[in-house]
Amino acid sequence: MLALKGELGSGKTQFVKGLVAGLGSKAPVTSPTFTIVHEYAGGRLPVYHFDFFRLEDRQSIVRLGLDDYFFGAGLSVIEWADKVPESIPEQAQWISFEIKSENKRAIVTRDNAIRESRIAWRQYGR
Ligand SMILES: Nc1ncnc2c1ncn2[C@@H]1O[C@H](COP(=O)(O)OP(=O)(O)OP(=O)(O)O)[C@@H](O)[C@H]1O
Ligand SMILES: [Mg+2]
Fold first, then answer.
1. CA of 98 to the centre of ligand 2 (A)
2. What are phi and psi of 32, to 5 degrees?
3. The whole model's pTM is what?
4. Ligand 1 mean position to 57 CA, how many Å?
């Protein structure tokens, strides 16, 4: 599971496009804004693409049955995972995206990002 965080336009969806293509799938990748999940088949692994940016009811995520995806056979990748850090399993790999300039991004994996997200969530109440 990959948990992606980073400001608007920092390259999360672009990364998922590369990920899906890299697994050999030709499926077009778009962010699941009004649906819960987009599934991409045809590659070495099925990919389940989530985007929690517009998630309003935190409880709803608990009822979605995300565990079926998170602990299933495919690869789950979650944009705006830091909106619901408490719902992201410990074994998720966190990846941070940062805008360096108009055409430049920093993409960083950090093992302690989940801890930082939890602290931020407590501090800002979101
Ligand atoms: N690695 C990259 N290098 C250069 N430009 C990039 C990169 N990734 C994305 N961009 C540029 O930033 C734009 C926005 O990227 P993208 O839609 O992937 O951001 P996002 O993090 O998914 O945003 P949102 O939070 O709105 O979902 C892209 O259309 C592209 O122009
Ligand atoms: Mg996006």
1. 13
2. -80, 85
3. 0.86
4. 26
